[in-house]
What we know:
Chain A is of the alpha/beta class and about 325 residues long. Chain A is about 30% helix and about 25% strand. In chain B, the strands form 2 sheets. Chain B has an 8-stranded mixed sheet, with helices on both faces. In chain B, α7 (about 190-205) links the parallel β7 (about 175-180) and β8.
Amino acid sequence: xxxxxxxxxxxxxxxxxxxxxxxxxxxxxxxxxxxxxxxxxxxxxxxxxxxxxxxxxxxxxxxxxxxxxxxxxxxxxxxxxxxxxxxxxxxxxxxxxxxxxxxxxxxxxxxxxxxxxxxxxxxxxxxxxxxxxxxxxxxxxxxxxxxxxxxxxxxxxxxxxxxxxxxxxxxxxxxxxxxxxxxxxxxxxxxxxxxxxxxxxxxxxxxxxxxxxxxxxxxxxxxxxxxxxxxxxxxxxxxxxxxxxxxxxxxxxxxxxxxxxxxxxxxxxxxxxxxxxxxxxxxxxxxxxxxxxxxxxxxxxxxxxxxxxxxxxxxxxxxxxxxxxxxxxxxxxxx
Amino acid sequence: xxxxxxxxxxxxxxxxxxxxxxxxxxxxxxxxxxxxxxxxxxxxxxxxxxxxxxxxxxxxxxxxxxxxxxxxxxxxxxxxxxxxxxxxxxxxxxxxxxxxxxxxxxxxxxxxxxxxxxxxxxxxxxxxxxxxxxxxxxxxxxxxxxxxxxxxxxxxxxxxxxxxxxxxxxxxxxxxxxxxxxxxxxxxxxxxxxxxxxxxxxxxxxxxxxxxxxxxxxxxxxxxxxxxxxxxxxxxxxxxxxxxxxxxxxxxxxxxxxxxxxxxxxxxxxxxxxxxxxxxxxxxxxxxxxxxxxxxxxxxxxxxxxxxxxxxxxxxxxxxxxxxxxxxxxxxxxxxxxxxxx
Lengths: 335, 342
């Protein structure tokens, strides 16, 4: 029900809810999120800061900050396992081994006091034991070459601070790929990079994914990046999925007023100079003050009476759905 | 436009590097390396380039927040770098700055009212009541509730804090504002609100902007003219439309070609620039862009390019610094194909 005609589903997230326990009480970071990742496909998870996209990814990886972050409901199905209920030791084998993740700032994800080569070897020790030191070194060099790092042999001895941001992100990608994961989760991997380096990294990720037949969840706030590399898109707002479709449908016929507003507010090269941009008025409600009904109600140009109750995710056909009363039966009863 | 307001000539800012046991000067970072430009009153000059290209340093030199190694900065005919403290302070009423992260530039211990009132206090403008009234007007002008005066910066969201930063910058009705990445930390929907606010204020107050950013779609939207920087130098400068339609320098072309286009029907084989930006401590000889340039020839490794009129132009409205500009043919830009396709 959730994906487009994607064929086999490799990861199925059903009714996931994650909360953070804070001094202000239990904050709902992610509420009733369902989507599935088709095998070999790239799914974009898009939304603005605080929309829950990273928390969703960390829930899948079971890497939520402890003890504050907790999955309180739902299932995450992967290869007949429910990752939510998987014992810690088995989860460790899935994480890094079969599902890998790369982060926005590779400087904080890499160990600053160890040479790159040693950090790469560690991946092999953990997930592919039994290799001789010489073989391991060869595989490390091979990996660095595959992600486009020049003079790979010399780079093994470098520390993370000795190489550029783009190179560090390549090293992170090499580490993630070292174990040939089935799923790669990339959390804003190019956001901290310059535009020409971003283009290099996107091309690299694209090529590697094609070559390995990997499935990927790509998290970003940049709709341009989504349009360039994703097959399917899930739009999140205030902890919920508000729209879901194939990338072509989402950009051609966005249905949720939030998605429409987001697409309209991007500055585009073909706009006349100094013209006013479309905006979404107001701002996202805080997690502690979430409206009971539609969470977009305070910013929506179409809000009507019905929106005071929570809207369902309406199936619009062809794998396209939107969480809005404008579609389906809601409209008539409200008008 | 009302003639030249800001004029920069051959500006250099070299930061010394000290090393060794005796902490002797062992080299320098050439953050800005011979920049000349002019900005007319009421105009927006966009300053773009990748991290480390010197755009932020240049912005700070313009206000003498850094004292440049050499060169001149003239504001309305006055030589900014030669002014004494008092004169500089008076001049700064007319030249303001907006930062990327307003949170770092707003003192967390003061209320928003106090922060916004400070400029009026320093320059002894109006009575206490009048100052409060002015602060309330400022907040309303940037789209905030004047009741927010009694609250502290941390109680506001990122977009609201940027509005406060803008309110502070326009408090004394300046003529020039240096905007240093004012929207790059903001979400798309908030970014659009702030861009509109800056455009409105420019129209109403006749402001002149130097708009520093790395996001080329944003810059094209706000700027009249754009200067592209690479390793401390301007490599191309033109009005926004010519620069994006017919860039002459391979670096400008690569920057524009690398912008992700929010349209899945426009997916393409990307033109990739190899490698990273070189170090401004040891910039390459000749054209500093040659190690990454797909068009580099033997002379590019030796000769230093100067800014010259672009091929086919004469009046200096389109300047560029590629030695081979007249010989090379840059591939067509995808965004133009898209526009023509409609």
